[in-house]
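REQUEST ID: PR-0412
SUBMITTED BY: lab tech R.K.
PRIORITY: routine
TASK: structure prediction, single protein chain
INPUT:
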Amino acid sequence: MKAFLPDFKVSKLLLDSAHDAMPYYEYCKQENITPVIDLNGKGGRPPVYKDAFTIDSDGVPVCKAGCRMRRDGIERAKGRSKFKCPKMNRIDDCLTCTCEAPCSDAKYGRTLHLVMKDNLRLFNNPP
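STATUS: complete
OUTPUT:
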């Protein structure tokens, strides 16, 4: 494609799960292309991330209580996705953890950053 259309700039790439392989993600990163690729179940995923969190089939961290964490944006400058505790709620204008056994005493609850370079396949933008 580059040979036939040298002036054409690809910024996004949509592929099906047959293309869910690390070389595609690495190429997209190198060429500054946003990949949108359906995950293939055969590709595997790390069973545990950073010695504490499991990652579900959609690439979302699961807290120790078994709840899928809530996506809280992307920090592009730091190359990471941010996830927060799904049990944090605003009650009477105050943040409160509604979990029976809170895993953090932090004011805003447990926060996890997934570093995109750790696994370009799972930790990508868009997810």
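NOTES: The chain has two domains: 1-44, 45-127.
REVIEWED BY: pending
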